[in-house]
Structures are given as C-alpha cells and as structure tokens.
Specification:
Helix content is about 70%, strand content about 0%. The chain has 7 helices and no strands. The longest helix has 26 residues. The radius of gyration is 18 Å and the shape is globular. It starts with 6 loop residues before the first helix and ends in an 8-residue tail after the last helix.
Length: about 140
C-alpha cells in the first residue's frame, strides 16, 4: 500500500544517513550548521526535522539515497512490506556475492571481469539490505498477521 514516511521513520533514516556521512560533526560541516542542530534533527523527542535540501546534500556526500530512496519505495510499493522476505533476499544476495568472491580468488588471480562481477553483486547486496532495513523500519508492535 502506498504511504508516506512517518516523522519517526524519517528521523531513523536520517540517523543512518548521518552515520554514513561520518557522524554529526562531519554533517554539521557539510550542512553549515552546528553539530548540535544535526543531533536535534535525528532526535526522536526533538521537533526539529531535516529539510529535503539537507537530506539531499548528505545523500550526495555519501552517494546513497538512504532517506529519499526509502520514501520513494514507500510511495511506490503496492503491498505491505514483508520483513522476512526482504531479509531472505538480502541473505541470498550476500551468498551470491560471497560465491563471486570465492570464484574470483579460486585460481589465485583477479581479472577485471571477475572484479566487476563482485562489484555488481555487492551493489545488489547493498540494495537488498536497504530494502530489508526499510521493511524493518515500518514494523509496529502488535499481533503478527
């Protein structure tokens, strides 16, 4: 079901983004604000919310769409996320990447094609792990369906 991220989800994802960019002090420098302000923007009990411009700036720094990617997936999803399936997909892609690493090193030599294959497989792992994290971020207390 298509939905918007809650404020809590945005703050949790922003916290991940700050960590990916080197922490609150580094993000303060990038955003031109004091590190205390960055801390407030990720604090659950603080009313401060990061702006879209701040989110996009930090995502450009780390090269990953942590917040905006999760927001897009929440809007585009047609069905409720299944965290179990998302984690299984992440583990499966991790196993595929590990298999590629073993195949690359089996003969004691790494060629460009083998390296590229490992790079591609690890990018899939990254996407699948982010998808699993997004699914886990929307879990709510209560009975399991």
């Amino acid at each position: 079901m298509s939905r918007a991220l809650s404020d809590g989800e945005v703050k949790a994802l922003f916290r991940q983004l700050v960590k990916a960019c080197g922490g609150i002090e580094a993000c303060g420098v990038e955003l031109g604000v004091k590190h205390q302000r960055v801390s407030l923007m990720q604090g659950v009990n603080a009313p401060d919310m990061p702006t879209l411009r701040q989110i996009m700036t930090l995502e450009a720094v780390c090269g990953r769409a942590i917040v905006t990617g999760a927001a897009a997936r929440a809007i585009e999803d047609d069905a409720e996320e299944c965290v179990k399936a998302a984690v299984v997909d992440a583990v499966t892609s991790s196993a595929d990447a590990l298999s590629s690493v073993h195949a690359m090193d089996a003969d004691g030599w790494r060629d460009e094609g083998e390296i590229r294959q490992v790079q591609l497989r690890t990018q899939v792992v990254l996407r699948e792990a982010q998808h699993a994290a997004d699914a886990a971020a929307i879990l709510k207390p209560g009975p399991v369906r």
